[in-house]
Structure formats: structure tokens, C-alpha cells
Specification:
The protein is built from 10 helices and 10 strands. It is of the alpha/beta class. The protein has a single domain, classed as 3-Layer(aba) Sandwich (Rossmann fold).
């Protein structure tokens, strides 16, 4: 069997005095959508921040089998991790509000050296999110919440991710935007993308996920296919609103 694209082994992480991840172990295979679900404070965002180098673990290994071979991400700075192909689309979108939509998109391409491919990839982003082409010259801060999420995802795609980390992409969005965002996530997977998804809407996340992990108090408590987890009585009661 081929090595996972990403393999986390025995990861321990603290935020201040709080031990937020306990011997976390999970893996992601190429071409998968993997959902990480759990309650607020379970350690989901901390997991993504550890992968992307924004938080340094106490111990453990994050092995990434990228284009340049297997590397341990815990030894790299965040900008080097992006260049290796791991791109984090953060919770809250974190756009540059005073820059134009196009300028925000091009910020995603800043780490790249293959500038000759950018026009075609910008066209691809515009095909996924036509509103970004229409709003190209407007200040990003003038966009709606849903449009800002599309902008954040488009910016991430222009960083040329091998592995895309999506943190709460539907948070605070109107239903029509949520549907569009999830349609794009599935479309990216159909084009060969690999995605680690954190999502408050556990039902939608598990519906599109190939596999999933349940994180509770910094520990993985359940794992399985998205369909299996969606049928699990414990998951249904805790995360899917099924009171039984």
C-alpha cells in the first residue's frame, strides 16, 4: 500500500497551560476528503495549526509525503510548509480587507516560483467562483461573508496545495453559500485534490467525506468512513442532532 500523503503520529500539543492534543494519530491518503469533527474546544483547529506550523507540538511527528519526498513538518517554518504543498484556509477567512479581490487572490500565489502557470490557475479559480471575477477590482472588505469565504478558498488554491486544510468553511454563511462551498469541495476532490476538513455542520461534512475522525478533548475516539460515522448512534446523538 502506498504511504499516506500525511501521517500524524503521537502528536502532543499545549496551548499555554492546557494540553490540547494527546497522542493524536491520524492519516490522510491522496485524493481523499477526511473530516475531523468534534465539539468546540476539542482541538480541531489546533490540529490544523500544528500541521501548518503555526503551533509547535511538544512531541510527535507529522510526516508529509509531498512532491519533494517525505518530510517532517514539525521541523519546518510555516512558509516552508506552504511551499511544500500544505495550504491552510483558516477559520474566519482572514482576508486582506483593504486589498482588492484580485490582489487577495494573488497573495496566495506569493510563495510560488512557477509564475507562468498562474493565468490558467486564476482562470480555474474564476470558473469555480465566478463572483470573484465579477468583483475583481472591489475591496475585499466589501464582499459578503459567503463571497469572502470563496475568496479565501480561491487564494488557497492559488498557493497550489497538495493538501488543503479547510477550517470551518461554512461558519456563519447563508444556506446558498454553504451549498456552493460544499459543491466546490466535492468538485476539487473529483479533480484529485486531497482535503482535511473541519466543519461545524457534521452532517454535511460526513456526507462528502471518504473517511472521518471524531476528536474529543484532544483525543481521537472514533474513526471510520464518512457513511459509517454518520450512522453511528454516538455520533448521531452528539453531533448530528439526533436525540434518539
Amino acid at each position: 500500500m502506498n504511504a499516506p500523503l500525511l501521517a500524524i503520529e503521537g502528536l502532543n500539543l499545549r496551548r499555554g497551560a492546557t494540553h490540547v492534543l494527546h497522542d493524536l494519530t491520524l492519516d490522510i491518503r491522496r485524493g481523499e476528503i477526511v473530516a475531523l469533527i468534534g465539539a468546540n474546544g476539542a482541538g480541531k483547529s489546533s490540529t490544523l495549526q500544528a500541521i501548518s506550523g503555526l503551533l509547535r507540538p511538544l512531541s510527535g511527528r507529522i510526516a508529509f509525503d509531498g512532491p519533494d519526498g517525505a518530510i517532517d513538518l514539525t521541523r519546518l517554518a510555516p512558509e516552508a510548509i506552504v511551499r511544500a504543498g500544505v495550504v491552510h484556509c483558516p477559520e474566519g477567512r482572514q482576508i486582506f480587507r483593504s486589498l482588492t479581490v484580485r490582489e487577495n487572490l494573488m497573495m496566495g500565489a506569493y510563495p510560488r516560483t512557477d509564475r507562468e502557470n498562474l493565468p490558467a490557475e486564476l482562470d480555474r479559480v474564476h470558473e469555480l467562483f465566478p463572483i470573484l471575477a465579477e468583483r475583481a477590482k472591489l475591496a475585499a472588505g466589501s464582499l459578503s461573508g459567503g463571497e469572502q469565504m470563496m475568496l479565501a478558498m480561491g487564494r488557497s488554491l492559488l498557493s497550489k496545495p497538495v493538501l488543503l486544510l479547510l477550517d470551518e468553511p461554512s461558519l456563519g454563511l447563508a444556506p446558498q453559500y454553504i451549498e456552493r462551498i460544499f459543491d466546490v469541495i466535492e468538485q476539487l476532490r473529483s479533480q484529485g485534490a486531497t482535503i482535511l476538513l473541519i466543519e461545524q455542520n457534521a452532517a454535511m461534512a460526513l456526507e462528502i467525506a471518504d473517511r472521518g475522525y471524531v476528536l474529543e478533548h484532544g483525543r481521537i475516539t472514533l474513526t471510520g468512513t464518512g457513511a459509517d460515522l454518520a450512522r453511528n448512534d454516538e455520533v448521531r446523538r452528539a453531533y448530528l442532532g439526533d436525540l434518539g
